[in-house]
Amino acid sequence: MNENINGDARRKSILGSILNMAGPWGNDGDGGNGGGSGGGPRNPWGNPSGGPSGGGRKGAASLEELFKKGTGGGFKGGIPKRPGGRSWWPLMAIGFIILWVLLTSIHRVSPQERGVVTFLGSYSRTLQPGLHFSLPTPLEQVVKLDVEDIRTIDIPEGEAEKLILTGDQNIVDLAYSVRWNIKAPELFLFQIAEPEETIKEVAEAAMRAVVANFTLDDTIGSERTEIEQQVEQNMQQLLDGYGAGVVIRGIAIKKADPPAAVNDAFKEVSAAQQTAQTYLNEARAYAQQLTAQAQGESAAFDKVYEEYRLAPTVTRQRMYYETMERVLSKVDKTVVEARGVTPYLALPELKKRAQQPAITTVEGK
């Protein structure tokens, strides 16, 4: 008690000294005229009503009372008390707890999602689509994962090269993408530390293993579909062995070219190979044509031979006529008949003579 009295006395003396000092508004200590016609500006610490003497002391007393309220405990801010003098804090705490339990215990899982529940950090169960309840955080936490979203990983990222060795000791620049989605959310979250990075590394390993069994021409040509299917199968087997909880939906090779440094030379070689292949195809077509013609002639001869065996004389006579007809049809001929028959008029010979230009000769007189 004595210490509080001594402290109040010291504060009063300090405030009195400050208020009696000359300031920019003059000294109000003379006659205590805080705001009257003392020949100087009015002291802002004096009586705001500009009354007569004693106004300065009243202002000092008001300021002193303010300091006393702020330090002595007479002024108490905050929430007013409930009727009966009880505090609102217990009710506010109970309401906050109820709100916290409602917000962290009720979970709505969408049709394309699955909710993974952990109890104190350990896996507890998986929530199917619908409305579910759990213990409040931090006892249980729910992580929702979209299991129907098809994710894509591009290898390589951007315009970088991805050089892979083929089975015939050539190098090919491959760019491809991996499509996948989540199959088992609990495995996806807890089995592998970095699932997406693991999928990317497994894809690169599977692609290198598969391309090593194909030549360069097959890799950039007709076997790309086969390569994609084998890579997909190998990736799924590896990831299932790791327990990654994902499904590989497909591999798409977007680019399969030789390295940029030898691309021009490779194009020239490819053009030459295509030209050679064109010539080979033409030769095969001509050979097949000749073979078909020879087979047709052989079949025709077999038929004639069968007829010859049945009637040799008639067949010989027929073959003779057909042969003579075929030979004589291509030459000029004159037929001389026996006596008493009008000779054959050589029309082809006359036609030739008619087409020859006439030669006119002039004899000298």
CATH architecture of the domain at 151-258: 2-Layer Sandwich
Strand fraction equals: 15-25%
- Overall 3D form: rod-shaped
Question: If you consult CATH, what is the topology of the domain at 151-258?
Answer: Tetrahydropterin Synthase, Chain A
Helix tally equals 10
Structural class: alpha+beta
Helix-strand sequence: HHHEEEEEEEEHHHHEHHH
Mean pLDDT: 78
Largest sheet: 4 strands, antiparallel
Describe the structure.
- This protein has 365 residues and is of the alpha+beta class.
- Among the domains are: 55 residues, no CATH class; 108 residues, Tetrahydropterin Synthase, Chain A; 85 residues, no CATH class.
- 48% of the residues lie in helices and 16% in strands.
- The protein has ten helices and nine strands.
- The strands form three sheets. Strands 6, 7, 8 and 9 form a four-stranded antiparallel β-sheet that branches. Strands 3-2-5 form a three-stranded antiparallel β-sheet.
- Strand 7 and strand 8 form a beta hairpin.
- Helix 1 runs antiparallel to helix 2, helix 5 crosses helix 7 and helix 8 crosses helix 9.
- The N terminus is likely disordered.
Features of the shown structure:
alpha+beta, Tetrahydropterin Synthase, Chain A, 3-stranded antiparallel beta sheet, rod-shaped, disordered N terminus
What's the SSE blueprint?
Blueprint: H1 2-20, H2 55-72, H3 89-105, E1 106-109, E2 113-119, E3 122-127, E4 130-133, E5 140-146, E6 151-155, E7 163-165, E8 171-182, H4 185-190, H5 195-211, H6 216-220, H7 224-242, E9 246-257, H8 263-310, H9 312-328, H10 347-355
Antiparallel strand pairs: 1-4, 2-3, 2-5, 6-8, 7-8, 8-9
Helix pairs in contact: 1-2, 5-7, 8-9
